[in-house]
Amino acid sequence: MLASHADRDRAVDVLRAGFAEGRLEKDEFDRRVSRVHAARTVGELALVVADLPQGPAPHPGPVAAVPQVFLATPRPAQNGRAVGSAVCGLLCLLTAGLTGIPAVVLGHTARAEIRRTGEDGDGLALTGLVLGWLSVGGWALFWLLLIAVDVLD
């Protein structure tokens, strides 16, 4: 990789630090600085400063050039049981309430896991819980009314 002006400046800084600490004599420092300015690649620069404590300055990649403050923070993982609870809750109408109880069970277990692990998905778990309980309650009311009508006849 071709060396940039910034790469050469870093190499000269390493040489200056070595000279200031007494690790290089004046004539050796001058020779190395002239080698730095004549270098065409980063590898040549690394050879000039490799025996000094700071060593060769690493060439930053495109990600290392971005300050940590500006990098996106990783999002917590989505809880699988919360997703399952929401899906079961949404399927309650299509399955005539058969997925209502699984939605409630998955919703409660998901919310407990989310509180313990800090995962995402509390809204999905709550959606599954509400839809599941509405389905269970609706079907229970339907069967109670059906039984009451049958008893009154």
How would you explain this protein's 3D organization?
It contains six helices and no strands. By secondary structure, it is an all-alpha fold. Helix 1 packs antiparallel against helix 2. It is rod-shaped, with a radius of gyration of 34 Å.
The description of the largest β-sheet is: none
Shape: rod-shaped
List unreliable stretches of 5+ residues. Answer: none
Strand tally, please?
Answer: 0
What is the average per-residue confidence, as pLDDT, rounded to a whole number?
A: 87
Number of helices: 6
Q: Report Rg.
A: 34 Å
- The SSE string, one letter per element, is HHHHHH
Query: How far is the first residue's CA from the last residue's CA?
Result: 92 Å
Proportion of beta-strand residues: under 5%
Q: Tell me the structural class.
A: mainly alpha
Q: Specify the helix fraction band.
A: 55-70%
Name the features.
153 residues; mainly alpha; single chain
In terms of topology, how is this protein built?
Elements: H1 5-20, H2 26-38, H3 42-49, H4 80-90, H5 100-117, H6 122-152
Helix pairs in contact: 1-2, 1-3, 4-5, 4-6, 5-6
Brief summary:
The protein has 153 residues and is an all-alpha fold.
